[in-house]
Amino acid sequence: MTIQTVATKPFAGQRPGTSGLRKKVTEFQQPGYLENFVEAIFQTLGNLSGRTLVLGGDGRFFNRNAIQTILHMAAAHGVARMLVGRGGILSTPAVSCVIRKRAAFGGIVLSASHNPGGPDGDFGIKYNIENGGPAPEKITEAIFANTQAISSYRISDAPAVDLDDVKITTLEAMQVEVIDPVADYAELMGRLFDFDAIRALFARGFTMKFDGMSAVSGPYARAILEGMLGAPAGTVINGEPLEDFGGHHPDPNPVNAAELIALMSAPGAPDFGAASDGDADRNMIVGRSIAVTPSDSLAIIAANARVAPGYAAGIKGIARSMPTSRAADRVAEALGIDCFETPTGWKYFGNLMDAGLVTLCGEESYGTGSDHVREKDGLWAVLFWLNMLASTGKSVEQLVGEHWARFGRNYYSRHDYEAVDATAADAMMAALREKLPNLAGQALGGFRVAQADDFVYTDPVDKSIASRQGVRIIMTDGSRIVFRLSGTGTEGATIRVYLERYEADPSRHALDTQQALSGLVAIADGVSELHQRTGRQAPSVIT
Ligand code: VG1
Ligand code: CO
Fold first, then answer.
1. Same domain for 177 and 189?
2. Same domain, 372 and 425
3. Is 19 in the pocket of ligand 1 (CB under 6 A)?
4. Which of 62, 83, 332, 425 could form a disulfide with 339 if both were Cys (CB 3.0 to 4.6 A apart)?
């Protein structure tokens, strides 16, 4: 067994997006493509002797091949020890948890998250640093630069490593420790939440369905909900991770999880419903006939955080991505704590959490989490809701209704236009940016523009600047329209239009969301000329 140096060439377009490098599986299957990116990671990290790295993925097609390649390259780069989830499986929050708990140097996460899997689907890879969170831009840019300069990679030619049993083996001089993918994570959850209260809730006959969408959250949900918390068998549906996610689109929203939504409005519906995404970092919370918007979920968790033992001392601050609704801002104000507004993508929350400025973070895209790890965490959010339901004895509908009555309701929706011609999308954004200086002060369809800009973020901790993070039009009454292009799509461009309107009056809290936002939708279309420019008459997905 020897270490080989293999000649290769740089590949175009290996620039990581919102959440690492995501491409079609067929692109990753090109000889040298994955190796190029992994070599670039190792070159960026420098001397790895004595270091431990964590490795695992969401189990999608190509996961096992990629794990073997990465292990063999890690051995060739002098990594001392690799911790790998059994079967190559680790959810994104579990990687973050293991990095922190075992004081690893970093980790490699294999996932394209909510993007479809299978031979015709997507694959993805990203590097997480020693705080357990996604590498900051400084590192991802260095990795990208290395992918452009590479002419060879190093890899061991040793036979494949057996990953199906929890045990320690060696590959060249490197130790490979196969770990139980669930154990560390489950232990952490048990410390954060009142498992006794949740167990008692299930023992009283409380019913729930958790939709694993045939992705990686299934084993975690089964072990914790059905195993540790005593929920009846069958509580977790679609709980077996499949390489193609059983054809599901593992992006938990009311459109993709239509089966769960239907179940929750049918006669005899369970008390509580939840779903997670491909790599288990997202969550959808559903009550009887109500899907909780992620922005509201963040705000409600923040307002009730003290019920959970891990948050009994209160929360230090909240951070939300810019397009996320301002529901959490009102809670922060009431609690007398800060609410930070960051660009889209979890990597921007890391510094705030490390500096002790925030405890809770959230994104409108069904992502919620806290400083227990440095990734968003789907099952964590579900357990938080269970803890709130158990401790208050209230239903999801009650918790949401009472929250709106106290803080007002932020009507919120995201309209996605997927697989749009990239040139048309870029032209639309460029034209919008040009209009911005003239929008302030203008009256638009019953609203008046207070501020129109392209969001620039200055990290309060390291002062790094991220610009062009989304065009926003903010009205004098606090309503907002935000436009940005997705950084995770793999086909053409995806335009996201985010719409928000605040309503303080409780007698107007039961409006249909799309109706409540229709005025803003018309303004968004008028200002952006989206329909003319893209030839699309309606969004591909409304959430
Ligand atoms: C999307 C979401 C963003 C999220 C990102 C990664 O990014 O909008 O909020 O952080 O996915 O989530 P974009 O650039 O397509 O809008 V995941 O579950 O893919 O790690
Ligand atoms: Co995800």
1. no
2. no
3. yes
4. 332
Ligand 1 centroid to residue 478 C-alpha, Å: 24
Say if residue 463 is in the same domain as residue 509: yes
Domain that holds residue 208: 185-407
Per-residue confidence (pLDDT) for residue 489, from 0 to 100:
81
Is residue 321 annotated as a catalytic residue, yes or no? no
CA of 367 to the centre of ligand 1 (A): 8
The confidence score (pLDDT) of residue 247 equals 87
Protein residue with least CA distance to atom 17, ligand 1: 113
Q: Are residue 172 and residue 225 in the same domain, yes or no?
A: no
> For residue 210, what is the domain's CATH number?
3.40.120.10
Indicate whether residue 14 lines ligand 1 (CB < 6 A). no
CB of residue 344 inside a 6 A radius of ligand 1: yes
131-162 per-position pLDDT tens digit: 999 999 899 999 999 999 999 999 999 999 99
Number of domains in the chain: 3
Would you say the CB of residue 416 lies under 6 angstroms from ligand 1? Answer: no
Distance CA 472, CA 69 (A): 43
Q: How far is the CA of 29 from the centre of ligand 2 (A)?
A: 22
Residues 175 and 222 placed together within one structural domain of the fold? no
Residue in this structure with the two tokens 């928000």, named with its chain if needed: 500
- Ligand 2 centre to CA of 485 (Å) is 18
Reading the block at residue 165, the tokens are 């049993």
Residue with tokens 């299930």: 202
CATH number of the structural domain spanning residue 453: 3.30.310.50
Do residues 190 and 326 share a domain?
Answer: yes
Tell me the whole-structure pTM to 2 decimals: 0.95
End-of-domain residue from the set 380, 407, 434: 407
Judgement on whether residues 13 and 153 belong to the same structural domain of the protein: yes
The stretches in the chain having pLDDT less than 70 are none
Residue-level pLDDT at 497: 98
Residue type, 227: G
Instruction: Kindly name the residue from 113, 156, 217, 486 that is annotated as catalytic.
Output: 113
Question: Does residue 487's CB lie within 6 angstroms of at least one atom of ligand 1?
Answer: yes
Do 387 and 490 lie in a common domain?
no
Map residue 311 onto helix, strand or coil: helix
- CB-neighbour burial class of residue 32 (10 A; exposed 0-12, middle 13-18, buried 19+): middle
Three-state SS letters, 409-449: EEEEEEEEEEEECHHHHHHHHHHHHHHHHHHCCCEECCEEE
